[in-house]
Design brief:
By secondary structure, the protein is mainly alpha-helical. It contains 5 helices and 3 strands, in the order ααβααββα. The protein has a domain of 88 residues: Glutaredoxin. The chain has a 3-stranded mixed β-sheet, covered by helices on one side.
């Protein structure tokens, strides 16, 4: 009978904390808009069903320990080029499938790591990093003035560059 009372106390605690959370939430709904705001996920719209890391440090740690390459997308929410690339990236079924083989990170701010901006801090830009934590500066897009930029029309090049990042990995390790 002892265990049962523990269980009921535990359930009561859960109920209480849920109720408190609801009350806390109510205060914030003064400026209610017609459309409920979806919780902002780490994907930021680049692939909601994919697992995204939160920080560059976490991404490096995971790449090293999982032996998966890391793909970093630098973008800005109010940049039309970023938005356009995000749309085709998220809707590209093959890319979304292939992305599962990567540690993923999308950033709306610059890190202090200069290796992530080999030719400048423009957006959108996509870089790959090996599990050995080497930035793959050799995997580039088609623009000589912005080596790691991709336009929506370059989505198949980005896809083949993702394949390249995985393939080179196998031959080098």
């Amino acid at each position: 009978a002892m265990e049962k009372s523990y269980v009921s106390v535990f359930l009561l605690l859960i109920v209480i904390s849920c109720a408190l959370a609801k009350d806390a939430g109510k205060k914030d709904t003064k400026d209610t808009t017609a459309k409920p705001k979806l919780p902002q996920t780490l994907s930021r719209g680049w692939g909601d069903q994919l697992i995204w890391t939160q920080t560059y440090e976490e991404a490096l740690f995971r790449a090293k320990h999982s032996q998966k390459p890391l793909m970093i997308i630098h973008h800005l929410e109010d940049c039309p080029h970023s938005q356009a690339l995000k749309k085709v990236f998220a809707e590209h079924k093959d890319i979304q499938k292939l992305a599962e083989k990567f540690i993923l990170l999308n950033l709306v701010y610059e890190t202090t790591d200069k290796n992530l901006a080999p030719d400048g801090q423009y957006v959108p830009r996509v870089l790959f990093i090996d599990p050995s934590l080497t930035v793959r500066a050799d995997i580039t897009g088609r623009y000589s003035n912005r080596l790691y930029a991709y336009e929506p029309s370059d989505i198949s090049l980005l896809y083949s560059n993702m394949q390249k990042a995985l393939k080179l990995l196998k031959t080098e390790l």
